[in-house]
Every structure is written in structure tokens, then in C-alpha cells.
């Protein structure tokens, strides 16, 4: 039976490849005809058409996600909710709610906001689930704004962003033990964190970066921002080493970021949520396989492990190589006292955040199975990484910018498929 399933999935993948090529050729002709039509008239109309198409995708996918939640969410507490909502049940102080530890992370600002959502909704868990969806929708808007702020343009390929953020494949984040601290809020904080990197005023930039960093450390798995922030500040320190006041300001900011991260471990109890956990794993190569499958799991046919691991490995390898090369470039510019390019700072933040999460998840969960990381509740933590990959494509080569259509078709097929493969 398993052999027949693999054969069927292999044939399905082949059909998807043929469909991809067909759609690409058709889309290419349609795109060129539309572009030629608008060019013969007014460029402004062409830009408006692109924005209209993007909004159409955004509204459609938002409605699809809301419909999904409306159909399947329930108004009842279950499973881990009886544990991580303990500080709300016991009416504890805001700080106790903020710092509450539900292993292995704390609940942070998400749980504080959730307190008021529950009070206003009379403890209706369906309302809370809709709230989580609205936060994700808001985050997708911020992602579009971030893209525009970095590149000053809207392109057809930007439909990738709503397809990525409003993906129905992340259904567990909304329907299986919804927890804003383990879904929407870490994603929101990462986007706000990246937006602070675009500030022109250096003092405002690093002060708000510290704030986003602190909120991230205490809210779910956005704790990994606490590892990134000192590195980004070090880039600034090297860049401004000859600028007295700014140099000492950044030294102070650096130590505050370290203290913020260390504060997380006050009264922290180390352990594992996996009963089978062992480190190092008896089969070390499975770490690589686990991460590879996690990077592709949400957009591949369920069960096609052999085909998925290679494509996932390409995404993960691209992430590692891009983050390394961009970091070298930033350090090189900083050493020459050249201001760091905000695009690169944002890209390495997005790439490394998801990579750190995936690595941590592999260490903690690989003992269950190599494809365990494909659980859809982890998808939301890979979103920043894929957004970073998207931005990296714009940076690597100007020629790639001209092939935005091809990238659009690819993500429409892959992420569009994952949006609609979910069924009851």
C-alpha cells in the first residue's frame, strides 16, 4: 500500500511539473500582451493594474482564511490551553502573564493582549481565533509595506507575500490549540523588528530595535531575535567606531540587548518537551533531512518525502549561503565605515530567524521522525525565511528582477496548491 501511494504521489508531482510549465508559458504570453497594452497607453494605469491584482489576491486569501476559521474553529478550551492560560484563569498580574513560562518559551505580550480579548469576548475561543487571523492579516500588510520600503516598487511577483502569509496550510496555528504566543505574535514582532531596521535616525532605530527585541525574547519562539540583535548591533559598532558619541551609544545598546536576552533565563527550568529527546541524535544526518523537509513540507504533497527533501535542501542551503555572503558584505562595508544597506540587514534577519528556529526544532523533535517538523503549526515560523529568500532574489542579481513573472508563477503553483489542499 505504501509503495502504491509513493507511485501515485510521484505521478502527481510529474503532473504538477507539466502544469507549471504550461501555466508559465500561458502566463508569459498574457503578461506580455497586458504589459504591451498598458505601455501603449499610460504607465500609471499599468501600476494601478498591478496594485489592483495584488489587492485582489490579498482580499481573496484573507476571505479564504476567515472562512476556514469560521467553518472549523470551536468555542471550547482543550489540550494545552488549560496549561498556558493558567495565569489568565488565576487572574495574575500583567508581568506574571507576560513572563509566564509554558515550556520551552514564555507567553509574552501576546498573552497580555489575549487577556483583554477574552475579557471583551466573554472567554469565547472562536473570537480569539479570529483575533489571531486578523493579526496575521495585519502582518501580511506590514510585509507588503516592508517590501515597498526596501525596493520602492510593487511588482507582479509580490502576490507571493499574501500567498505566503495567508496560507491555509498553516491551519494548525488557528484550529489546533490556538495560541497567539506560538503563532501570530512572533510573526508580527519579527516584521516590526525588520521595519525598525529601515529607520534613518540611528537613535530611534536602535531604541525601537531593543523594544522589538525584548518583546520577541519573551513571546514564543521569536526568542531567537535575542541572538540576532547583538550581532546586528556589532555591525553598527564596527561601522561607527570612529564616531565617539554614536560608538558609546551603540556599546550601551549592545549590553542592554545582552541583558535582555539573559533576563529570559531568570527562574527558567531547562528540559525538553519531547519524551524521546537525546542530544546528539543517534543519526546526525537526520538533522539535515529534518530541516530540509521542514523548509518544503508545507508546499509539497504529503508523503512525498524523497522528492521533498531535495527541494527543501535547496531552500535551506540557499538560506545559509545567502545569510553568510550578505553578512560578510555588511561587515566589509562596516569596516570601511560604509553605512550598512538596510535591505541586507532585513534579509539576514529574516533568513537567520527561520534558520535558527528550524535548527532548534530539529534538535528537539527529530527523535519523533524526520518529517515531524512538517506539522503545520511550525509553518508560521518559516514564513520570515521564505520572505527573506524572496528579498534575496531581488538583491542577488538585477537580471532576476526581470523574471518576477516566472517567480510569481512558481509560487502561485506551490503556495496556491498548499492553500487549497486543506480539506475536512
Shape: globular
* Termini Cα gap: 23 Å
Number of strands: 2
Radius of gyration: 22 Å
Total DSSP helices: 19
Give the averaged pLDDT, no decimals: 80
Helix percent reads over 70%
Strand content: under 5%
**Biggest β-sheet strands, sense, barrel:** 2 strands, antiparallel
Identify the strand order in the major beta sheet: 1-2
Write the layout of secondary structure elements.
Elements: H1 2-39, H2 43-72, H3 81-84, H4 86-89, H5 94-98, E1 101-102, E2 105-106, H6 108-121, H7 125-151, H8 160-165, H9 172-175, H10 184-196, H11 202-218, H12 225-239, H13 244-263, H14 285-296, H15 305-335, H16 342-365, H17 379-396, H18 398-401, H19 404-420
Antiparallel strand pairs: 1-2
Helix pairs in contact: 1-19, 2-7, 6-7, 7-10, 10-11, 10-17, 11-12, 11-13, 12-13, 12-15, 14-15, 14-16, 15-16, 15-17, 16-17
Q: Can you describe this structure?
A:
Strands 1-2 form a two-stranded antiparallel ribbon. Helix content is 71%, strand content 1%. With 424 residues, the protein is mostly helical. The protein has 19 helices and two strands. Helix 2 packs antiparallel against helix 7. A hairpin with a 2-residue loop joins strand 1 and strand 2 (105-106).
